[in-house]
């Protein structure tokens, strides 16, 4: 764990293995395939010649040679023929075969391109959905860090309707946040002044007499609330941090430190993993010292999904990536 969607050149990724979108001959080609062969050097082609090719939907592994990665996993995706010729199953098979090879060879970090989405013509939004589904399922059962590398910004799409819906939601919230409401603010200030309570008497809440007394009134911490919610949901720790797209080591830090202060993306990721309604998500976020802000696209997008009870963290991250925002978890 977890899955990261990044923009990068896959040949520069410092991971245990990179995946090559290969053809059945395994002898190089254009696009990602050609770039990987050029970066690895002629030794890669020499080893590939001894592999006897690879069938569509399967994968084979070689050394990485001059690449930063120790291994290259050559996965053969399908050519798009309209979707009625088993393309989805073949593409999913190529991802699964690659992940199994990585696991068998002790890889802890693997980088994938968007297989079949170039010259093979697989629709990019469908290719991305298949990649995220297969990798996400694999990571629920195995500890591995996987990068889905999108080299070209134009190669990414979360679907026109969803994109438009989120864009409209953002616009609406931005208007609420940024519209000049001086007159309304003035009316509120005057109303507040008129209704303000008198100065405190003996009936007012007591003021702590010392710093020690004040510190003794500490509320439930983020870590304490998180662990309580996990128990209330009947989840195991592993189920929670995997659904949150969080690394096990980070979760261990949170569990062992009552006063651990997570980043905002981490806190939001746990709210999603726990499938909290919006009011409870806000409360968990407050425990970490944050709040949902309608001045932030990141916050609005996460709020959009939680408000609709869509707790698929990978779908949320696809949307965040499309709008150039930080991702949840990780």
Automatic annotation (TrEMBL):
Domain of life, per UniProt, equals Bacteria
InterPro entries xref list = Macro_dom (IPR002589), Macro_dom-like (IPR043472)
NCBIfam families tied to this protein:
PRK00431.1-6
Q: What is this protein called?
A: O-acetyl-ADP-ribose deacetylase
Q: What SUPFAM superfamilies does the entry give?
A: Macro domain-like (SSF52949)
Record domain Macro: where = 1-167
PANTHER family (alphabetical): GANGLIOSIDE INDUCED DIFFERENTIATION ASSOCIATED PROTEIN 2-RELATED, MACRO DOMAIN-CONTAINING PROTEIN
